[in-house]
């Protein structure tokens, strides 16, 4: 069965559980036999980069070899059982002496990117290209789940600087350039699941949480059309369930916290925000 590409965008106020909702979706896809392409935090690709090098493939772009090699290592661990089955559809040349031939396993390409850190950014681009081309195919096909936490980090501004101290635009980063192609709704055989995040977001108002506010006009137009999935604060039943769980796990040990008045106080202090409630009940 061919699965069309659907884009779901998870939004909600800070601390409502967007990342955990994404993790649940990723876990479900993995259990159903999908290949998972997971970006745990897109904001880390546009700030605090330890090593930024001019791209050997495209003169106007910049490579991030450390981030790329770390991502390839995690991708290999998550999808190890797929890497020997997926075969490359084209030949990739890295240097005058090094190349990866057509028909070789995808795992060989990933291993090359992990061991040859300098080429890791271009290897990520090649891996994403192969996945985009082969997802949902009839011969040895697979379903692909692209999961990006903090997808709004792919648009806007970065903290990275060029040698002349001018800012680096997101589209000038090799990793961001290639990941944006996976967000486009021009391939089939899977789904794109993304969250919008204020945490780690650069130059965005702290009160912003709606797609238009966090993505900006360019990002919103790039992702449109998508299915918005709002993540709300705890309902009364959800709060009660979490409260009873904390009691069972002995997180709430003060006698007052185990009374009805204590529970009402936790509701007032947390406003049923999952993250705030967790911090209030956490150990010191």
From TrEMBL:
Family listed: Belongs to the mitochondrion-specific ribosomal protein mS29 family.
Any one Gene Ontology BP term: apoptotic process
Gene name per UniProt: DAP3
Keyword Oxidoreductase appears in the UniProt entry: no
Compartment annotation: Mitochondrion
Recorded GO CC terms: mitochondrial small ribosomal subunit
Superkingdom: Eukaryota
PANTHER family: MITOCHONDRIAL 28S RIBOSOMAL PROTEIN S29 (PTHR12810), SMALL RIBOSOMAL SUBUNIT PROTEIN MS29 (PTHR12810:SF0)
Keyword Ribosomal protein: yes
Keywords: Mitochondrion, Ribonucleoprotein, Ribosomal protein, Transit peptide
Protein's recorded name: Small ribosomal subunit protein mS29
Gene Ontology molecular-function annotations: structural constituent of ribosome
InterPro entries: Ribosomal_mS29, Ribosomal_mS29_met
């Amino acid at each position: 069965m061919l699965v069309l590409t659907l884009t779901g965008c998870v939004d909600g106020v800070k601390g409502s559980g967007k990342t955990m909702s994404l993790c649940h979706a990723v876990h479900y896809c993995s259990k159903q036999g999908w290949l998972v392409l997971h970006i745990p935090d897109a904001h880390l690709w546009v700030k605090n980069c330890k090593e930024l090098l001019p791209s050997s493939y495209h003169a106007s772009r910049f490579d991030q070899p450390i981030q790329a090699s770390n991502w390839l290592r995690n991708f290999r661990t998550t999808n190890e059982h797929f890497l020997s089955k997926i075969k490359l559809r084209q030949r990739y040349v890295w240097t005058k002496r090094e190349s990866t031939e057509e028909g070789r396993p995808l795992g060989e390409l990933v291993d090359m990117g992990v061991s040859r850190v300098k080429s890791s950014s271009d290897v990520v681009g090649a891996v994403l290209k192969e996945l985009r081309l082969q997802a949902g195919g009839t011969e040895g096909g697979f379903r692909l789940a692209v999961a990006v936490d903090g997808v709004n980090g792919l648009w806007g501004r970065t903290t990275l600087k060029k040698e002349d101290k001018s800012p680096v635009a997101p589209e000038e980063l090799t990793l961001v350039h290639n990941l944006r192609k996976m967000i486009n709704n021009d391939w089939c055989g899977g789904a794109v699941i993304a969250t919008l995040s204020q945490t780690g977001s650069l130059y965005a108002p702290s009160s912003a949480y709606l797609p238009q506010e966090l993505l900006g006009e360019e990002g919103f137009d790039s992702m449109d059309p998508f299915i918005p999935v709002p993540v709300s604060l705890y309902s009364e039943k959800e709060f009660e369930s979490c409260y009873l769980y904390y009691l069972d796990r002995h997180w709430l040990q003060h006698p007052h916290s185990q009374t009805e008045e204590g529970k009402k106080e936790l509701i007032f202090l947390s406003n049923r925000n999952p993250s705030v409630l967790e911090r209030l009940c956490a150990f010191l």
